[in-house]
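Encode chain A's predicted structure.
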Amino acid sequence: MGKFIGERIIYLDAIAGISGDMFLGAMTDIAGQLDPNFDLGSLLAKISIDEYDLSVTRGKRASITGLKVDVHPRRQSESEHAEHGARHHRNLSDISEILRKSDISREVRERALSAFTLLAETEGRVHGISPEEVCFHEIGAVDSIVDIIGAMLIMESLGWPRLRSSPVNVGSGTVRCAHGILPVPAPAAALLLQGMEIYSAGEPVERTTPTGALLIRILVGSDGFRPLPCGRIMCIGTGLGGRDTPNLPNALRAILYEPSEIDEGKVRFARDEVSLLASNIDDMNPQDFGLVMERLLDGGALDVWCENILMKKGRPAVKLCCLTKRGDEERVAEIILKETTTIGVRVVETDRYTLWRNIEELHTSCGDVRFKSVSLDGKTLRCTPEYDDLLEIAREKNLPLHEIRKIILRDVRSNL
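Encoded structure for chain A:
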């Protein structure tokens, strides 16, 4: 077996397109396999709207089985309609208020608001109005609100795995919506998919909805269309759409896997996509950098370091640098801007090669200790105990760190 690097990726097979309910169904299928107690209804109950009924059923499209998630808006009574108006016509400020009142994390709230803001800007471009004037119609209806916020909630519950996708089948023909009969893909969906890899196949129906296009744009991005890399499949989820098209099953398949080394040595190094964030700082107390670096690591940075540099007019300064996973740039940049005196952060997207690494827990006379091993061409190069574990044991036993390291390494060698 190859060594697994531990990062989870979800690969979307969008050969039959994507919609909000298909995405929720596929992710719910995955979440249920990872945690038998997972309950989508409890997760969606965090959203501050209750004018809908939820059903999650296992069904079949052509020869493919999967989960169908349906959000059924409840019919308003005349008194409710008079008091609250037509609930399905919401604008961006209404969505923002729903997010503010919902019992959700800051990250889910910000990502969902970014999604709705992008949608408002897109609809505004289509209809020639400002984002604030956009009345969302279908996309502001309760089912689409639940689909979009629910997508962010379930991604959070899965630990925000990276998403990759096959080219997206958009379908063909026409679709009837609040603005009349429109070509497929609908104008908003087409704009959201700009820069993405799309095609058309199968019966002439709408296969990728505006909600589905939005999720692809937000969660996959234009650089996320790649062939399925080598790795170990953990589980497969399938979400069903509303139509049963026999020649091309109306289903979205999602594959959760861990990237791995190819056993035959065809891939010598791990390779991942990261972003490099950097700021030049010449007016900050050097003693403050320690806390900044600590908070950056706690906030999701992969690595943090400082470089001594010389700026204009011969001023000595510090270049604060950190690496992040793709998608974490904004959160990490916010920490830099809040915790330092800089007014700007540079971001460069890049790739990196790393040795294949694996973390395992070994029992020693000092307790259980995590060890990180790295390998090349199938051979282990180094195996070192995790510093944090050594530090905790040294504090508990009131012994120098180097003594604890010596004891633990001796125990491990004696058990080999």
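The two ends are 20 Å apart (CA to CA).
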